[in-house]
Design brief:
- With 66 residues, the chain is α+β, with helices and mostly antiparallel strands.
- The protein has one domain: 2-Layer Sandwich (Alpha-Beta Plaits), CATH 3.30.70.100.
- Helices cover 33% and strands 32% of the residues.
- It is built from 2 helices and 4 strands.
- It has helices at 12-23, 50-59, and strands at residues 3-7, 28-34, 39-44, 63-65.
- A 4-stranded antiparallel beta sheet has the order 2-3-1-4.
- It binds copper (II) ion.
- Copper (II) ion (CU) binds next to helix 1.
Length: 66
Protein backbone atom coordinates (compact mmCIF):
# COMPACT_ATOMS: atom_id res chain seq x y z
CA UNK A 1 0.00 0.00 0.00
CA UNK A 2 1.32 3.46 -0.84
CA UNK A 3 2.16 5.58 2.19
CA UNK A 4 2.46 9.35 2.26
CA UNK A 5 3.63 11.74 4.96
CA UNK A 6 1.31 14.63 5.77
CA UNK A 7 2.28 17.73 7.67
CA UNK A 8 -0.14 19.87 9.67
CA UNK A 9 -2.64 17.42 11.16
CA UNK A 10 -3.30 18.07 14.84
CA UNK A 11 -6.51 16.28 15.78
CA UNK A 12 -9.15 13.79 14.71
CA UNK A 13 -10.94 16.46 12.69
CA UNK A 14 -7.84 16.87 10.55
CA UNK A 15 -7.62 13.09 10.18
CA UNK A 16 -11.24 12.94 9.04
CA UNK A 17 -10.76 15.80 6.56
CA UNK A 18 -7.67 14.24 5.04
CA UNK A 19 -9.31 10.84 4.82
CA UNK A 20 -12.44 12.25 3.22
CA UNK A 21 -10.46 14.28 0.69
CA UNK A 22 -8.26 11.37 -0.31
CA UNK A 23 -11.31 9.17 -0.84
CA UNK A 24 -12.65 11.71 -3.34
CA UNK A 25 -9.70 11.06 -5.65
CA UNK A 26 -10.56 8.64 -8.43
CA UNK A 27 -8.68 5.37 -7.90
CA UNK A 28 -8.05 5.74 -4.18
CA UNK A 29 -9.80 3.62 -1.56
CA UNK A 30 -9.20 2.07 1.88
CA UNK A 31 -7.63 5.23 3.29
CA UNK A 32 -6.08 4.93 6.74
CA UNK A 33 -4.69 8.02 8.42
CA UNK A 34 -2.33 7.77 11.39
CA UNK A 35 -2.21 10.98 13.40
CA UNK A 36 0.78 9.95 15.54
CA UNK A 37 2.91 9.06 12.52
CA UNK A 38 1.54 11.88 10.31
CA UNK A 39 0.95 9.21 7.72
CA UNK A 40 -1.76 8.13 5.32
CA UNK A 41 -1.92 4.80 3.53
CA UNK A 42 -4.32 3.83 0.79
CA UNK A 43 -5.13 1.33 -1.90
CA UNK A 44 -4.75 2.32 -5.54
CA UNK A 45 -7.30 0.75 -7.88
CA UNK A 46 -5.41 2.47 -10.70
CA UNK A 47 -2.27 4.61 -10.77
CA UNK A 48 -2.72 8.01 -9.13
CA UNK A 49 -0.15 10.77 -9.65
CA UNK A 50 1.47 11.95 -6.44
CA UNK A 51 0.97 15.52 -7.68
CA UNK A 52 -2.79 14.95 -7.73
CA UNK A 53 -2.65 13.86 -4.11
CA UNK A 54 -0.37 16.72 -3.08
CA UNK A 55 -2.66 19.27 -4.70
CA UNK A 56 -5.79 17.81 -3.07
CA UNK A 57 -4.17 17.83 0.37
CA UNK A 58 -2.82 21.36 -0.11
CA UNK A 59 -6.33 22.53 -1.05
CA UNK A 60 -7.62 21.59 2.39
CA UNK A 61 -4.71 23.14 4.26
CA UNK A 62 -2.18 20.36 4.82
CA UNK A 63 1.10 19.47 3.16
CA UNK A 64 2.37 16.20 1.72
CA UNK A 65 6.08 15.98 2.55
CA UNK A 66 8.59 13.87 0.66
CU1 LIG B 1 -7.51 19.03 13.57
Amino acid sequence: MPTIQIKGMSCEHCVASVRKRLLLIDGISDVQVDLQKNEATYTEAKPVQLDTIKEAIREIGYEVTD
